Amino acid sequence: MEKELIFGHRNPDTDAIGTAIAYSYFQNQKGYNTEAVALGEANDETSFALKKFGFEAPRVVKTVANEVNAIMLVDHNEPQQSVEDRDKVKVTHVIDHHRISNFATIDPLYYRAEPVGCTSTVLWEMFKEQDMEIPANIAGIMLSAIISDTLLLKSPTTTDIDKEAVEDLAKIAGVDYKEYGLELLKAGTNIAAKSVEELIDLDAKSFELGGKTARIGQINVVDVPEALERKDGFLKAMTDASKENGYDLFMLVITNVLDSDSEVLFVGDDESKEVFKKAFGKELVDSEAHLPGVVSRKKQIVPPLTRAFEA
Length: 311
What we know:
Elements: E1 4-7, H1 14-29, E2 34-36, H2 44-52, E3 70-74, E4 90-96, E5 110-113, H3 119-129, H4 136-150, H5 160-173, H6 177-187, H7 196-202, E6 204-209, E7 212-221, H8 224-228, H9 231-245, E8 249-256, E9 261-268, H10 270-280, E10 288-291, H11 297-310
Parallel strand pairs: 1-2, 1-3, 3-4, 4-5, 7-8
Antiparallel strand pairs: 6-7, 8-9, 9-10
Helix pairs in contact: 1-3, 1-4, 2-4, 2-6, 3-4, 4-5, 4-6, 7-9, 10-11
């Protein structure tokens, strides 16, 4: 069978890389010929999970049409978040848990998206439906993805299905998910060694909202005040990136993984600032706002911004 590549979004997180690895195993067991790749280097958290369960990081690709004629997507569907030459290949499968936007194909495809906390949760259901055994290392990387995306089941995106998947995968992987989960999340919070330019792009996605291009980045920390000591540098890097890439607004969400609150830094014009105020009921003070209880870009940031832009 002709080879297909499987990958998640740009600036990949643990879900994008972990689910690509697990879905490649799943599809190969069904007779497909696939390889999990990535659209960027693994971050510290993902690298911790890969090492824990004995995986090498997938190779990074910039284009795919030079290698294959068909691809499978996980953890994304929007073209601006995908590989740059996606329009030159056939998309045969999508497994996702995000909104569907600007997505179209010429041919029919397998598409499965569910409003759960993580793409690996959807894949866990698929393993169960197929009565396919999950190897311990695959269970471990899927568990890592769910813990990461749900902030150890504390995110408002968490569902009962996510909880069931975590408990089952932890048993298969042979770990205490609470103990391991805290280790995993803390592994991704060391930001001191990274530049502000690296940090604003580490987990950033672009969205088309009301005709505007919004760039929303997120970093997880255990010490928000320490991160905000670099506020001026963050704002300058966000402003420079906006000018260079044509972003109408840039939000950096700094999330405390221990108390599930976020501090937001914002760069944009006056219209965008009014939209922010309408979306969150918060005034930006010196380009900053506190959003208590907000941890999910997918559920708590993009939807209210979308509604505010369209109002």
